[in-house]
């Protein structure tokens, strides 16, 4: 992306460039493909909306006949801090009983959102549940019971945007992960 992109003026620094993200996604796709039996019925459960761009790229590096479904949960409003409240806005269309669920997340921060999603999906008796996240902010983890199977990158405790992640619904279409200038959200 040229530096003349009109959103660049809001970005303080790029912390993960586009090529680095794309190379890591290829590796994750291979790791994920090798972790399943080719006969397994795998459903990618993409958590809306942040994980959409990651899931789309990742799916094309998974060498298995996966299906893709979406769930929309919300723990954040328009701001940058967790409300602690997780709402289900849109449920899955597919029945996941006896299927292998791969939850695709954009970022794990406190871990509360993911814990809630995993607990709910477990009640539907899938054959297995694995979790892949593009980003992990381990410093902020509150919920330690949820184990991530595949992790793209660890990021510092800064509010990040781009590659699916937003601030007030903007910046999702930046191809890199960056930190927003503080004056924009203070
Ligand atoms: P928890 O705290 O439940 O939060 O693990 C996970 C969800 O919070 C959002 N989140 C962020 N979104 N930049 C964002 O654009 C961030 O730095 C950030 N940290 C957390 C995100 O939606 C994630 O699914
Ligand atoms: Mg999210």
From TrEMBL:
Gene Ontology MF annotations: guanine phosphoribosyltransferase activity; hypoxanthine phosphoribosyltransferase activity; magnesium ion binding; nucleotide binding
InterPro entries hit by this protein: HGPRT, Hxn_phspho_trans, PRTase-like, PRTase_dom
Family assignment from sequence similarity: Belongs to the purine/pyrimidine phosphoribosyltransferase family.
Superkingdom field: Bacteria
Group of enzyme by EC: transferase
Lineage, uppermost ranks: Bacteria, Bacillati, Bacillota, Clostridia, Halanaerobiales
Entries under Gene3D superfamilies matching the protein: 3.40.50.2020
The protein, known as: Hypoxanthine phosphoribosyltransferase
Listed NCBIfam families: HGPRTase
GO BP, one annotated term: hypoxanthine metabolic process
Sequence ranges assigned to domain Phosphoribosyltransferase in this UniProt record: 23-167
Function (record text): Purine salvage pathway enzyme that catalyzes the transfer of the ribosyl-5-phosphate group from 5-phospho-alpha-D-ribose 1-diphosphate (PRPP) to the N9 position of the 6-oxopurines hypoxanthine and guanine to form the corresponding ribonucleotides IMP (inosine 5'-monophosphate) and GMP (guanosine 5'-monophosphate), with the release of PPi.
